[in-house]
Input
Amino acid sequence: MKSVKDILNSISANNSLGLKLLFIIASVYCLSTALYFSNLKVTFIGVLLCSIVVSKHVIKSKVIWALFLIIFSIDVIHNFYDEANHHFLLTYITLIVVLHLNGVFNYKILIKNIKYLTVIVLAFATLQKLFSEQFISGEFYYYMFNSGRFFKPIVTQNMEQLALIKSNNAAIRELALINPNNSSASAQFQNIFPHLGVICVVFAWLTIAVECIATLLLLLKPTHKLTHIVLLILILGIFSTRLETGFLAILCIAGFLITTNKTFKTIYLFLLLLFLSLIITKLGFY
Amino acid sequence: MFKKYHKKLAYCVPVIALIVITFQVVMVKTNQLSRWKGGGFGMYSEIHHGHNEIWLKHKTISIDSLAQKNKRLNASIKRLKAHQTKNNLKTTAKLIQKLTQYDTIVLQVWKPKIDVNKATYYRTLASEITYIN
Output
């Protein structure tokens, strides 16, 4: 049996592990979204399972990756204004893998592509927040906290906070029954924490700062330890706020591929497996 | 397969991503597209468009209950809440007019707003269209 040290060495030495993980993510995502274009996806999953039984080289199969790309692209084109952002991201990553397997670029350029893509995603996630008045004023976080959409497992443990969240949501539901043309009524919130207004503004700017630092570090020092400490803080920060496990799994694979450090690779790997488990068990979002 | 274009294709994916994001940003600015949608990575930067409300001016009818009985209207409303183009407004208004038989309707989309100082949640008019049969 392999020792832990051997396993850790193989994690950092093995290039094909990255591709294997991408393959698992794409398969899990395909299964999770099988409700849309179900006939096509069920057929594809059947082909995928047959290929796994018959062939040893499914993970590097050009045909299978091309089929992944076709399926994800159909979703994007058909539901362009409705697809989640990480669906777009996964489609781009699938295209990168397809180009790599077809000999357009080598593994080194594949990693660079993943790096630039992650930088673009983080940069625009930051910019969109920066240019959203509702975000920088703290209004968005204020709403998310008071309606119990953030830190759900923690805030719902406290009976007093749970009662306030229920009362706030009831006020919103009641207001939604009134035609706003006939009344300028509003729903009165009861803050679940004291000084929530100030906390939300600080939290909003903190989010922008962490995302901005992660973007710059990833662009300028992609393999530096500090870069991956910040990226892991961002991943764990998002995870503790909301179970956006689909997006987080893709951030983890990006971190895993970009870093050259054995310890960070191992951390990303275990986080990725945790997020995938949460997606499969439907405890997290896909 | 793409040998002739290998060098040119090396970073084509990040470029495609940038083109899609640019298009999304333009749509957000010009066509009231929700920042959450369109592949621009603006998730969690504003209240989700699912909280937008659809109302008719001068009418008491609830569009939500009307949509529960009609799949096409439901899908149309979902689209309209995320993206208030003239076309989406017109399509939804047409469907509502057909179902309600009103001669003229003024279809409106209201967005939630928060007043942190007063701790209130209220709604503001985002867009409207007058549809005459």
